[in-house]
Amino acid sequence: MHRNDAQLINELNNRAWDLTDQCQSLELEMKINTFEDASGARVQDFGVGRTGTLSGGISLAMICLADLADVQILNPQSQLLPLPQVQVSTDHPLVACIGSQYAGWPFSHGKYNSMCSGPARMARGKEDLLTEYDLEVSTERVVGILESNEYPTPEAIRLFAEECRVEPVNVTLCIAPTASIPGTLQVVARSIETTMHKLHELKFDLRSIHSAVGTAPLPPIAKDDLTALGWTNDSILYGAQSHLWVTADDEWIEEIGPQIPSNSSSDFGIPFIEIFQRYERDFYKIDKMLFSPASVVINNIKSGKTFKFGEIRDDILKSSFGIV
């Protein structure tokens, strides 16, 4: 890990906290509801029970990334698929995407269940991926992002604070259901993160990735969270492309490259919701090789060579999203 990244990991929760402060100051424009829970924690609701906003979605994605990446909405790149693109770029992919953005904490208390993203995970620790890359920290305040259409109970938030070794008053939780603009956008902004997680599965040293840019189409906002789950996954699996600048051996890239994109999985080729139903809605039964972007471009700084693997499948996306 670069020395600057080692310094940054201690600042991630503060960086994310500053962004939540900015969102609170702009909550009328972003249509965000900010309030203090009975536990004493701050809750920022980006879209529970409503559509939410694009500006809220961009901000939520940047909070997930602890303000170590730029998130933009670009014009459509394909006439076949006339949807805007969500672009993410970062010079700190390991810290931003693995240390903060990755949804590595299945948080639950009683009947409340949600996947947690954000730099609060680093304060909690307890994830092998964080331990492997020295991404665990002690901090005075934490920020977590919960993908949910319900607020956690005060008791759940107290547990969250305890797990992160802080007081509830020093917790900010950002919440958005998948079937909202912010919820959909922050999921689709994971083109780089999914690439890095796949590379980790393939035993690639993530510290060798210097910079990254990822794009993925922003799907329609679904009428329910289950449909949104399918569409956001399809956006990554069939429409995302990541560009990585790495230092590695060309032979290693050529060997693992074909295994990086989603088409390396036998489940590739049909909408995700059909795959999900086939495996009885159990993520852990689905082939792990599927969870990656459609296409990956790797620029090897060591040799100057560029490699491309995988393919964008706008036809599958058009069918999945019901675009006529």
Strand order of the largest sheet: 1-2-8-7-6-5
CATH architecture level-2 label? 2-Layer Sandwich
Radius of gyration: 19 Å
How many strands, what sense, and barrel or not for the largest sheet? 6 strands, mixed
- Helical residues, percent: 25-40%
Overall residue-averaged pLDDT value: 95
Secondary-structure-derived class: alpha+beta
DSSP summary: helix tally: 14
Q: What amount of the residues lies in strands?
A: 15-25%
Number of strands: 12
Distance between the termini: 47 Å
Say which CATH homologous superfamily is assigned: Methenyltetrahydromethanopterin Cyclohydrolase, Chain A, domain 2
CATH class: Alpha Beta
Order of helices and strands: HHHEEHEEHEEHHEHEHHEHEHHEEH
Domain unit count: 1
- What shape does the CA trace take? globular
Regions with little confidence, pLDDT below 50 for 5+ residues: none
CATH topology call: Methenyltetrahydromethanopterin Cyclohydrolase, Chain A, domain 2
Structural commentary:
Helix 5 (93-101) crosses helix 10 and helix 11 packs antiparallel against helix 14 (314-321). Strand 1 and strand 2 (42-45) form a beta hairpin. The strands form two sheets. Strands 1-2-8-7-6-5 form a six-stranded mixed sheet, sandwiched between helices. A six-stranded mixed sheet has the order 3-4-9-10-11-12. The radius of gyration is 19 Å and the shape is globular. It has a single domain (3-321), classed as Methenyltetrahydromethanopterin Cyclohydrolase, Chain A, domain 2 (2-Layer Sandwich), CATH 3.30.1030. It is built from 14 helices and twelve strands. With 324 residues, it is an alpha+beta fold. The termini are far apart. The chain has helices at 3-8, 12-25, 27-30, 54-64, 93-101, 120-124, 128-132, 154-164, 181-188, 191-201, 225-239, 250-256, 272-278, 314-321; strands at 33-36, 42-45, 70-74, 85-90, 105-109, 112-117, 142-147, 171-176, 209-217, 241-246, 295-300, 306-310.
